Amino acid sequence: MEEYKLDYASGIRSLIYLSQTRTDIIFAVNKLAKYMRKPGNVHFKALIHLLRYLRDNNHFGVKFFSNYERPSL
């Protein structure tokens, strides 16, 4: 979409990578990825909506810790 200077396919590829730790966006990214070849205006609007969701909710996600001690049984 020229208004945002955003390449749809590049944005979707980035979101696919990000969805490894943001499980809350997997469904939306999967649906948007189906239209990578020929996205319409509706798909760009949904992509922008998803990017704004990520901006406003950056505290969600899976966190990995290297110093986690397993509880003894």
Task: Report the uncertain regions.
Answer: none
User: What is the gyration radius calculated from CA atoms?
Assistant: 16 Å
Characterize the largest beta sheet: strand count, sense, and whether it forms a barrel. none
Mean pLDDT: 87
SSE class: mainly alpha
Helix content: 40-55%
Could you say which overall geometry the principal axes of the C-alpha atoms support? elongated
How many angstroms does the end-to-end distance come to?
55 Å
**Percent of residues in β-strands:** under 5%
Task: Tell me what you see in this structure.
With 73 residues, this protein is mainly alpha-helical. It is elongated and about 55 Å long. The chain has a domain at 8-56. It starts with 7 loop residues before the first helix and ends in a 17-residue tail after the last helix. The chain contains 3 helices and no strands. It has helices spanning 8-18, 26-33, 41-56.
What keywords describe this structure?
73 residues, mainly alpha, 48% helix
Secondary-structure blueprint:
Blueprint: H1 8-18, H2 26-33, H3 41-56
Structure summary:
This protein is mainly alpha-helical. The protein contains three helices and no strands. It is elongated and about 55 Å long.
